[in-house]
Design a protein that fits this description.
- It is built from 21 helices and two strands.
- It has 503 residues and is mostly helical.
- Helix 6 crosses helix 7, helix 6 packs across helix 15 and helix 7 packs across helix 13.
- The longest helix is centred in the N-terminal third of the chain and has 32 residues.
Length: 503
């Protein structure tokens, strides 16, 4: 079921290969495997790439509780400064990934770049933690926000039952995974629509805010840098909150092999998306402060609702719907992108072989998409989601920092590698330092949870040697795994991709 990590081709001895007509051969037919034509198509255009990035960055936070930065900076002016600086730094990180995406034209994002620069062990640890804990927990959290806000218009006068939220959340998760399993094109089209809804929602806040400024409503900007002095840890924590709000700019690199003209479209999509998100985030916060004071913003349970109630009356009832659509877009974009990491990790021999197979007709990585479903459901109904995310929040910045450091390493290790897009060296140096700062901040501010997260991450090391390196597994065990793989192929109607069969 697992391939050896050093082998990047699909074993053709035991598994079924696709026929040229797009069908699986019968197990008992005795037909020779024919060269298949089942591949992941290049269907991610520039517009779809922009929608993936914007759609996954903008979640519920900017509408509900964009107050982590204000709380830790102590003033309106400093909070807007931090929002701007974090946007610029995130753009720097995104530009580093743009270079990596144009010179390493493989899907998989963080995993692929760590594998290229530092080898299989750290790459396996990255995908191990992502598959078992980070992605199921993160998907469950954003999905719970979707479930809560899609139900809010129906429970205006009372508390929403927790069971109802979880049941609607489960339906939403299943719907997203069915969509991503059925059609890449439809998943991308819906992502474009949901991204458009998010931008409309932000404009609904920004435009009245601009009108307020024109009217002279600037009282909350007077002495903008005066207020409660931030503590020694205040500014770093505000910075941490800001970087987290912008996270998601790396998702297009997870689907590099499906991007049309990646040398041009990846850098363009990243730059356009980050400029839109940064300007949108800053102007949205400016709009809030035209109507809501800093103290009121910190006390509000849903800032966008408070803002809309004061300026738009009953139209504020639409805010929960926009928030739910925003969450659904983040769910869809995240699953679309991360499934490609599992697909590539399987292709490289680090996950079960079935995960690198493609549906014979739909041309989607069906197993890599649905593998998250049972894990996410377990997290949703039984897991302590927020504790798990707190444990592993440092891991995100540790591995992103490792990737960007890998860019610098590859400049010296492989100077002749074609680089259609190249950033000045100070950009990866500054951003990798930023990531190390984030990791150090996690260790300083919450050493217990960070230590637990580090221990969970390290479980990937013995797992690597047990599942990948050790090749003396009993013959009966290997036969059983091969039989399970073939059975799953028949049930799911999936085969190795054409490139894998030619390898």
């Amino acid at each position: 079921m697992f391939r050896k990590a050093s082998v990047t081709t699909v074993s053709n001895g035991s598994y079924l290969q696709g026929q040229a007509n797009g069908r699986l051969p019968s197990m008992d037919s005795g037909q020779p495997a024919q060269e298949g034509k089942v591949v992941l198509k290049k269907k991610v255009t520039l517009l779809r790439g922009i929608s993936i990035i914007i759609g996954t960055i903008i979640g519920a936070g900017i509408f509900i509780s964009p107050k982590g930065i204000l709380k830790n900076t102590g003033s309106v002016g400093m909070s807007l400064t931090v929002w701007t600086v974090c946007g610029i730094l995130s753009l720097f990180g995104a530009l580093c990934y743009a270079e990596l995406g144009t010179c390493i034209k493989k899907s998989g994002g963080h995993y692929t770049y760590i594998l290229e620069a530092f080898g299989p062990l750290p790459a396996f640890v990255r995908v191990w933690v992502e598959l078992l804990i980070i992605r199921p927990a993160a998907t469950a959290v954003i999905s719970l926000a979707f479930g809560r806000y899609i139900l809010e218009p129906f429970f205006m006068q009372c508390e929403i039952p927790e069971l109802a939220i979880k049941l609607i959340t489960a339906v939403g998760i299943t719907l997203v995974m069915v969509l991503n399993s059925t059609s890449v094109s439809w998943s991308a089209r819906i992502q474009i629509f949901l991204t458009f809804c998010k931008l409309v929602a932000i404009l609904i806040i920004i435009v009245p805010g601009v009108i307020q400024l024109i009217k002279g409503e600037t009282q909350h900007f007077q002495n903008a840098f005066a207020g409660n002095d931030a503590s020694v840890m205040g500014l770093p924590l505000a910075f941490y909150s800001g970087m987290y709000a912008y996270s998601g700019w790396f998702y297009l690199n997870f689907v590099t092999e499906e991007v049309e003209n990646p040398e041009k479209n990846i850098p363009l999509a990243i730059c356009i998306s980050m400029i839109i998100v940064t300007v949108g985030y800053v102007l949205t916060n400016v709009a809030y402060f035209t109507t809501i004071s800093a103290g009121e913003l910190l006390l509000s349970k849903a800032v966008a609702v408070t803002f809309a109630e004061r300026l738009m009356g009953n139209f504020s009832l639409a805010v929960p719907i926009f928030v739910a659509l925003s969450c659904f877009g983040s769910m869809n974009g995240g699953i679309f992108a991360v499934s490609r990491m599992f697909f590539v990790a399987s292709r490289e021999g680090h996950l079960p072989e079935i995960l690198s197979m493609i549906h014979v007709r739909k041309h989607t990585p069906l197993p890599a998409v649905i593998v998250l479903h049972p894990l996410t459901m377990i997290m949703l109904f039984n897991g302590d989601l927020y504790s798990l995310l707190n444990f592993l929040s440092f891991a995100r910045w540790l591995f992103i920092g490792l990737v960007v450091a890998g860019l610098i390493y590859l400049r010296y290790k492989r100077p002749d590698m074609p680089r259609p897009f190249k950033v000045p060296l100070f950009i990866p140096a500054l951003f990798s330092f930023t990531c190390l700062f984030m990791v150090a901040l996690s260790l300083y501010s919450d050493p217990v949870n960070t230590g637990i997260g580090f221990a969970i991450t390290l479980t990937g090391v013995p797992a690597y040697y047990l599942f990948i390196v050790w090749d003396k597994k009993p013959k009966w065990f290997r036969k059983l795994l091969d039989r399970v793989t073939v059975t799953l192929q028949i049930l799911l109607e999936v085969v190795p991709s054409e490139e894998d069969q030619k390898s």
